[in-house]
Every structure is written in C-alpha cells, then in structure tokens.
Specification:
The chain has 239 residues and is α+β, with helices and mostly antiparallel strands. It is built from four helices and 13 strands. β7 and β8 form a beta hairpin. The protein starts with 13 loop residues before the first strand and ends with a strand. It binds zinc ion.
Amino acid sequence: MKPALYLKDSYMKEFSSTVESVKDDKFVVLMETAFYPNMGGQPYDTGKLLRESDGSEFPVVYVGKFDNMISHEVLRPGLKPGDKVKGVIDWDRRYKLMRMHTAAHVLARVLYNETGANTSGNQLGIEQSRIDFTLEGFDKDRIISCIKKANEIIKKGLDVRIEETSYEKAIGDDDFSAPSKHLMPKLERLRVINIKGLDKQACGGTHLKDLSEIGAIIFIKAENKGKSNRRIYFSLQDP
Ligand SMILES: [Zn+2]
C-alpha cells in the first residue's frame, strides 16, 4: 500500500483505487486511499466505495490502521482483490474534523505562549472537541482570554503548509513549542504542519490550508482534572 493520499492533499474528497486485499468479507485494504483512519485523537472518515464494474455501493463505516495498513470496514460483502473502486469521503464530517484539528493546533500554541501550558492530548469530535493540558492553578478567565487571542489569530487567516523536516532540525527550530518537541518521534523525516508565523508541529492528521476556514472557537467549559491537569471543551462557529 502506498502512502495515504490525505498526507499530501487533505482536500481530496474522491479518488480512484484498486482493492488490494479483503479480510472476513468486510475489511478492505486499497492500493492507495484518502480515507483517514482513527488515530492521534482524530476520528476516522466515513463514506463509500463504488465498484467501477457494476456501480455497486459499499458504505464505509469505520477506518483503522493495523500493521501499518489502512483498513476500511464496509457494510456489504462482495469486494474482491483487483476490483477497481472509486472512494468517496463523507466530506461534511471530514471537513468539520479538519476545522477542529486545525483549531486545536492554534489553541495549544496560544495556551503555551500565554501560560506555558503543556498540551498532553486531545480528542476531536464533530460537535465538540477537547484539549488536555497541564497548568498550575485553575483560572477560567485566563483560559477564556486565551480563546479570545486564538480567535484573533484565526481571523488573520494565516496560511497552513505541509512541510518536511528531520528531528535534528526541528529540535533547534524555535517555531516548534517546547512541549511539541517532547512529543516528536526521533525520525529522519517528519511531516510538519506549519501555521505561518505562529507554530510548527509534527503531525500526521488532516488540516485546513487557511486558518480563516475555522471560523471561531467557542468555549464550552473547562474542567479541573486534579493537581495540574486541565481540560477545555470547545465547539466551532462557522465562518
Ligand atoms: Zn495536526
């Protein structure tokens, strides 16, 4: 299987491919795919595979990465290795997740810049997302002011680029925040999401090309999860 198509172009909604293998009549691996698998806090894509020979439709209900292969769980049996298919991604769902994911990058960087907070994880969702971070003291007003700052940056419509660097180079680059450096794998080739003028981060997810597509971050609530663990829930307002 070739590198996932979403790595180069996260706006690809449809693609042509060939079935490489099928397990238990429902777990389908394609030669190449633009479907994003469930990982790194970003939920899987849904959509459908259309067989070119007869037009029959195989809804994709889950996508996961196993043994380094992206596996599509389809609702109907019948696909065979060698079948030519067209993949169609449920774009409303994926685009919402791209907006959430990019917003999470902005918010994590603003929290770090303003308070020194280290982001420890995130879980993106369609309706709401959450960010976990460590911060001494629990000051809700401070968190809300960070969200305000994040929204001012979003309004500027900064470019978001997909770049590549090495671990060695990234470690010496101040555009990467200290906490994101800690999370970085020690690889020769790292995929980097560069929000021009704000932040660089090694990430394998799908992002927007322009911050203005986020709209605005809406604060839902902040939770105190013990000594210095905090959690923010947020949703998005359409641009
Ligand atoms: Zn990301």
